[in-house]
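Notebook entry, structure prediction.
Reason for the run: the old model in the group folder had no record of what sequence produced it. Starting over properly, with the input documented here first.
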Amino acid sequence: MATYNKRGYKVPKEKEVKDTVEDVVIDEKDSTTAEVFSKLDETASRTEDWVAKNQKIIIGIVGAVAIFTVGYLVYQKFIAEPKQEEAANEMFVAQQNFQKATDGVASDSLYKLALNGSEGKFGFVKIADEYSGTDAGNLANYYAGMAYLNTGKYTEAIEYLGKFKSEDMVLGALAKGAIGDAYAQSNQPKEALENYIKAAESNKNDFTTPRFLLKAGKTALALGNKEEALKYFTDIKDNYDATPEAASVDALIGLAQ
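New structure, fully documented this time:
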């Protein structure tokens, strides 16, 4: 079949076709970009409208945050810090009495002075109450608990030692272990064992951990829990063999087997 071209019709050149396609693509891109910017403008407009409508609330929130921040800084500077310093000054005499009592000088009477105060200064009980939000007030709970433990007032010892909070790996463990001692002295071995375990597992170290593992093992042995006691004694032998507690642990392992 013969083919023919209509008069006046020109076959488009390859470059013309390419340019036409590129123009279409560019137009589509421009259209898409314009649509994106249009949506962004709409979103920004809605945001501006929302901010305008809720301006009082936003200002209120920002103001509240600013007041809280300023108030916190003022509290720290003019209330908390002076209160902490005041509490530390109050506690100095009580600490001296406690140390003398620990050294064995008229222990009972000095522990009582440490608890109740002397020389016009507060004792640990008053300091713990009056300065409860300070580091000194928290530390007074520990001292009071230990003083009560050493004077045979075990319920009070448990109460004050339970209030004491510390991230120090030794002091925190000693407080938990002292609660165990108070329960042991009150003939409550199960509660004593529970607290000895907490003390042993609290921030493990070569000083407090074997000490309270040994107490936990002896308490478990007294309760007839030989298997549990053996676990604690073996832990000392395997992991704390250079400590004083390891010196007598072999005989205890024999009793628990």
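Summary: The longest helix spans residues 55-102.
The old model has been moved to the deprecated folder.
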